[in-house]
Amino acid sequence: MSLQASAVESGGQPGPGEDVPEKKGASGGGFRTRATDLLSGSAGRNLGLVIALLLLCLIGLITAGDRFANVDNMMTVLRLASVIGVVSVGMTFVITGGGIDLSVGAIVALASVWATTLATQTMASDVHWILMVSTALAVGAGCGLVNGLLIAYGRMAAFIVTLAMLAAARGLAELIADKKTQVVTVGPFLDFFRGSLLGIPRLVIIFALVAVAGWVLLNRTAYGRRTLAVGGNPEAARLAGINVKRHQTSLYVLLGVACGIAAVMLMARTTAGTSTHGTLYELDAIAAVVIGGTLLSGGRGTIVGTVFGVLIFTTLTNVFTLNNLDTSTQAVAKGAIIVIAVLLQQRVAARSTPG
Amino acid sequence: MSLQASAVESGGQPGPGEDVPEKKGASGGGFRTRATDLLSGSAGRNLGLVIALLLLCLIGLITAGDRFANVDNMMTVLRLASVIGVVSVGMTFVITGGGIDLSVGAIVALASVWATTLATQTMASDVHWILMVSTALAVGAGCGLVNGLLIAYGRMAAFIVTLAMLAAARGLAELIADKKTQVVTVGPFLDFFRGSLLGIPRLVIIFALVAVAGWVLLNRTAYGRRTLAVGGNPEAARLAGINVKRHQTSLYVLLGVACGIAAVMLMARTTAGTSTHGTLYELDAIAAVVIGGTLLSGGRGTIVGTVFGVLIFTTLTNVFTLNNLDTSTQAVAKGAIIVIAVLLQQRVAARSTPG
Amino acid sequence: TSNTPAEESNGGGDDGGTTAVSANDDPGETVTIGFSGPEADHGWLAAINSAAREEADKYEDIEFDIAEGTNDPSAQIAHIESFISKGVDAIVLLPTDGAALTEAATEAMQAGIPVVNVDREFSNEFAARVTILGDNYGMGVSAGTYACQLVEENDLGDAVIAEIAGIDSLPLTQDRSQGFEDALAECGQDVDRRVAAEFTVESGESAASNLLQAANEIDIIWNHDDDQGVGVKAAFENADRDEFFFIGGAGSANAMRWIEAGEMEATVLYPPTQAADGIRLARLLAQDKGLSDLVQVEVPRRIVLNAPVVTADNVEQYMPLGFES
Amino acid sequence: MGAAHQAPDESAGASDRQPLLEMHDIVKHFPGVKALDGIDLDVRAGEVHCLLGQNGAGKSTLIKVLAGAHQPNAGRIIWRGEEVRLPNPQAAIKLGIATIYQELDLVDGLTVAENIHLGHERRNRWGFNAARESNAAAAELLGRLGHPEVSPTTEVGRMSAAGKQIVSMARALSHDAKLIVMDEPSAVLDQEEVGRLFRVVRDLSAQGVAIVYISHRLEEIREIGNRVTVLKDGRTVATGLEAKDTPTKEVIRLMTGRSIDYVFPDRGAGAPEGDPVLEVEGLGRTGEFTGVDFTVRPGEIVGLAGMVGSGRSEILETIYGARKPTAGSVKVAGKRLRPGRVGSAMAAGIGFAPEERKSQALVLRDPIYRNVTMASLPRFSRRGFMHNAEERRAAAEHTGALDLRPNDVERAAGTLSGGNQQKVVLARWLLRECKVLLLDEPSRGVDVGARTEIYALVRSLAASGIAVVVVSSEIEEVIGLSDRVLVISDGSLVHDCPADEIDEHQVLDMVMEGEVA
Ligand SMILES: Nc1ncnc2c1ncn2[C@@H]1O[C@H](COP(=O)(O)OP(=O)(O)OP(=O)(O)O)[C@@H](O)[C@H]1O
Ligand SMILES: Nc1ncnc2c1ncn2[C@@H]1O[C@H](COP(=O)(O)OP(=O)(O)OP(=O)(O)O)[C@@H](O)[C@H]1O
Ligand SMILES: [Mg+2]
Ligand SMILES: [Mg+2]
User: Fold this and answer.
1) Nearest ligand to residue D418 Cα
2) For the whole model, what pTM was predicted?
């Protein structure tokens, strides 16, 4: 008896708005064991991603050998992944809650510029670098709040609101920075964030902390549960007593704060704040989230998947670079690999479901 | 006895995935008249857009006077609107059908490059420029077909597939063009497409034809009905005997052809084919479609709204430029104006509905 | 270490100028040179990349490690970090953002790897061993000065001068505009209309189309970039306007041909050979050689390339420098 | 169940013809479930063949196989003597099999006429949509169904569930079918509507069209059916039973495997006492209902009777705070609720099971336990962290008490059969220990066995001191279950009396006339 049979029948694409329960996610009735449960659960869903990542590493190992497989290179990949990773974790919440945010890159830029103005930096060197961090977080949260209020209480489409924010925040960043790159001069700030702990760069540690906090928040708290409900069926959530609007707003604020953190990390990494920071982060973050298995239509989200999604994209670029592939060929290969990775993930997920 | 039920006050955001009937659109049971019906229909939904556009024109008139309000300038706005307009009309179909396409800009680039290679142009000057046009259309249709097959039959998320296509098509365009700008040398081609008819540039006429054809297709044919059905409730469409996968595929092909047409128009406008053509068209087109009133979650689409959306964005840039506004201020103003336009549209739509 | 007899065919030939005087082109010990630049998403940058690649190919003692072009400073920093960990002998770096890459370059220098900074300058002079700059400010000045000259020659009085800039948020665009403005001020002129495009043909066309509507009569238009110039020129044709002097920037082969054909007044050169020069210098640095062409024995710290104006009078001379875009 | 025995005369002649449809040994697996495990069914032309079975027995799955919407893993389908394959819905439609699905699969954004003709659009000479013709045809079909007032140009998304049901029926009729499958068409209809539906069904079978009719209301089966097939756990347990002659007890025994007394539970001795816990005063919403006044005491069950569209759902939703009233107030235990705030109502101890479980109550993709605990998250969280094991245990306990099938709380709620989804919604509020429970159509789509359980449950909840308000379109249910009956007509409360002082006919009269007969 084929397991695929049921999957073949669904006519609709798994696109936005679909509310048919996913067949691959459904698990068996009476004869389910703990092990298959795990498999068909999050691990099963992520197995495809793990395989894709391993394959990628294998390719890296074969084609670039030691240059790929050394601690330094691994740390480079992780460090590169960490900034967009933090944004993607935040994005996972917004998408799981049924929203979308195109303004993340612009918010990162605005936060980085605001936190590196002469005024802020002077104050920060007088008092403490924490001032710069708070500025970035506050700017991020503020932008997120505006997004959230317009979307939830103003009943506007998230796509449009955040597109407007994308334009406005980047424009504002340019105005503040006067289109110049603002160099970070606060030594202690750089020392702290550019340092390592036990050989692991602090940026990577921050990413890890954000990812773990995100995982706990989504999977182990009432907040996460509400996020899933709001994304899965907002009307049902409302009738079950969840304050849907407030919750949606909070999701955008959360993502705004993540953007603020990312801005701080980027400032440390590049020792500068500029209005060009975070360019195209919106696409990268959404891509990582979606490739990780979070449904773009909301109601199902996975932080582990998102982290894998980010790692896959970053490793891909790293392997390409180590192999000296030219940009155009890289782009073509990247397109093909994304499709293959997702197909792989689907097949594995289908296979790991008990029948 | 009436069978109409009012939609329960929606608590959710009108964002992606919403399938609760629009509250603002809900109209009363027995006491509905023909006139209010019309208002709450497409005209009512577009009234806000008309007002937004008129306001914009008023601002243009006040701030730039004759320079804004002259035929030349109007034609310039229309000519600039026409390329992205054709793509947006195609995008309206895909979004109405429940999909999304991020690869439109890349497809435009690839089609323009492919149609202006030395080989194609040599052949075209020997035979007829129609060869260049057919090449562009075929490339567009081909890319759309790949998108459609992977999404509908490969059951992959449209966002991911078209993101992959975005990377791959642009990369391929770069490889073909070797990152050079390929100048169009086929005189008759340029003469034809850069010419005017009764004082109206041919490009504008093409846009008008595409828009009218799109309107008829969406509103007056079985294909359009099925598009709405497939986007609104794919399972219901399948049960009603519609071949949902084939239909979805055809939508992406349609958009691909629109991209091919846009590529031809762009080749004529810029006298060149290059891999940088169509940059960020995906965002522009989706923004125009959504601001026009098409639901991002599918099932409701309006070509008239899309045309207004395109015109609003193009006029906005025109007015800004006539006023010598700097780019950053433009961006901030643009963000604010988008939000205001949508809020306006919502209020007007709510006002024009009885009850 | 080299025992290949093929050196002549590799090194010499096409670029006679330097090889004649110096022994520096003789093969030395093989060195690895890392190169990182922005994404080649536009003609000038593509020319930079290919010139660098070609230059490296000429020397068989160069092992060329070219990193993927990227517009994300964070990713570029990663490139530098991986160069450091790979232990390359020298790095040629065209930063996406000079300030943002200063720290990474400094680290490389501290690791003993000489860094050649190309085009966009670091914010700290210890971050590079050599800095080769195309002079963006100078480019604006050249364009402005030439515009002044045109005003004078044609007796334009208070001329209507328009500027079509490139990507506005880039510091280099700001430098060019500043130079243009300063030079115009010298002769009592100013920029009446300014629009910004995005270094692409399409954005050039739409920016120029809108610009032409903004003013009925324009005397001089300076366009920052010849690559977007293809679109700018198409816009002129579309609007059927040619009452102005059209000055370009960068100096692509297209622009040179237009000048020859009289369709363009002039273009301000911004040579895409900087990276190629950077490769040469990096090789010399890595092999501990000097510049035997100069009196000075050492490789200099800072080289600023000139931004000459190409007009119908001298276009023939500059034609070979024009890059196909 | 005192419905009249009006047998259509044609049925006698129908029985000796060759079967129109035969299904043999149909097997259908879903991941982890055998939904169908060898089903046999034969249907003759011109008969009304009833399909009975508990929630989850496999009725809907069987008819989806028949409609080409599901592919069976094994089995044969024979149509007019020839074996056929139904790879997709088109194939079934082409053969002349039209289906009204349980989950009303209509497209909200299209009009009535467009939905009716979806997939077989009317076109004019040039291939464009013939809108006028399509509207006219739709109007004719709606007229046949007794609903000439429904405009073919209304958008379906704005119609009530009952309206959508009518559209679905019109769509099935539009196909010129030889067999029409109706999956619980009466679930959302009131008595009058059901009467109209039956007239249409009789018309059709008189024309030789076969009907497969699914319902959980046994009295309907008796009224309209010719033969009965009973399913249990994916198998056919009885087929070809005479609808008129088989005793109800026997049918229930076949379905459930045990004997159940299909009766309403006893009302406790004496009227409930104590101060009213729920007080609704002058509640109104412009255009929907006005001046609704009533009180409910602890332990009392109050039933709201009325026609579909009379505004009962709106009243419940307004009490619950899901809609903001334009007049009046709601008090719980003497404290006034903040109008239009669900949170305020919940905090005061009101629970609400809405009428449309799919769109209003359930997150279909989420596991059952999460749907059950959705309204009680704080109870399972310590400082914001969820106590997952306890959550699952509590959910399983309550779904078990409601006899959920399969009782596996990890399953996605969307994979449950219709009736079982309703039990999940009920479990949500049982978990919350409410003071007041508002139930909108609690037994819609629920099978006899479970229905009896739900009645008993509601009664025992009341006995434990909870005040219950029930809305149902089955007047019999309102009267049988409640202590007090309120009659709603056209948005206002027209009558309020103890349940044992009123009978079905009186209620029906009031509902229609809008006043006491
Ligand atoms: N958009 C609307 N504007 C004004 N009145 C409406 C609207 N929609 C429905 N109504 C009216 O509101 C009343 C309540 O409708 P509804 O179908 O919800 O009642 P109900 O008694 O709950 O029926 P059911 O038993 O099917 O749930 C009806 O009179 C209906 O005509
Ligand atoms: N898509 C699906 N995926 C997994 N299991 C399913 C699916 N659809 C139905 N089932 C299961 O198949 C069984 C039969 O369900 P079905 O809907 O046919 O029952 P039913 O007899 O129509 O019940 P009801 O009277 O409640 O409508 C149930 O156990 C149900 O959970
Ligand atoms: Mg069913
Ligand atoms: Mg109701």
Assistant:
1) 2
2) 0.84
